[in-house]
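Input (7118_t:CDS:1):
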Amino acid sequence: MIWLKDLIVQLTMKHNTTGYTPFYLLYKRQATLPIELKIPTELSNNKNIKDALIERLFKIINQLEDDLQIALNQIKEDQ
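Output:
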């Protein structure tokens, strides 16, 4: 199972080329690490989960184009 730990590390480490983690670029959110499951999060503490999910969705949509452009610019600079 050593390969699984290596995979998690690769997916959650910020890469110099893009400035983001591969997990973030794929899923548009940071990975939840096992230790974080024991720590209460903003979403789990929020009484109105529907509003929190809608807010999160709009935040993702608004940030997507900016993040994509930043990643593309950083890739071009590194080539």
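The chain has a mean pLDDT of 80.
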